[in-house]
Design goal:
152 residues; alpha/beta; 5 helices; 42% helix; 22% strand
Length: 152
């Protein structure tokens, strides 16, 4: 896939692996849309990369509703969606309280599903696109899990 002028939406883009992914895509000519709760960080990174900041809490279904349509109408059709936002827990299962379980599942499972459900029809209609998923690991960033799906 040619990344020159590709539109890449990255969740969890304010720091760590998300920011590194954004820099890599921008270095190859993509326009990066940086989504995260940390407004100051994504504002600074978007200026550095000539990208677009998107304040977004992926754990909030109301904020996710229509977000893909908004990005595609205001910026460009999304060629690549990077579902990177995530929370991890190092607690033993028997020690995790109900609110933490909800936070982990909402952020790590439901948000990527909701975003993919929104972006996929346009990618299929255009005949191309890429979905990339990362997963936090309690063993540290060197153990990050990921999956990539290409539509071409």
């Amino acid at each position: 896939m040619d990344l020159n002028n590709a539109c890449v939406l990255i969740t969890g883009a304010s720091k760590g692996i998300g920011a590194s992914i954004a820099r890599a895509f921008a270095r190859h000519g993509a326009h990066v849309v940086l989504a995260a709760r940390s407004v100051n960080e994504i504002d600074q990174l978007s200026k550095e990369l000539n990208g677009s900041p998107l304040p977004l809490d992926v754990s909030d279904p109301e904020q996710l509703a229509g977000v893909i349509d908004r990005v595609e109408s205001e910026i460009a059709p999304i060629d690549i969606l990077v579902n990177n936002a995530g929370v991890e827990t190092e607690e033993f299962v028997e020690d995790i309280d109900e609110n933490r379980i909800k936070e982990v599942l909402t952020t790590n499972l439901l948000a990527p599903m909701r975003l993919t459900r929104q972006v996929l029809p346009g990618m299929i209609e255009r005949g191309h696109g890429c979905l990339l998923y990362t997963s936090p690991s309690p063993r540290g960033p060197e153990r990050i899990s990921y999956a990539v799906v290409f539509l071409e």
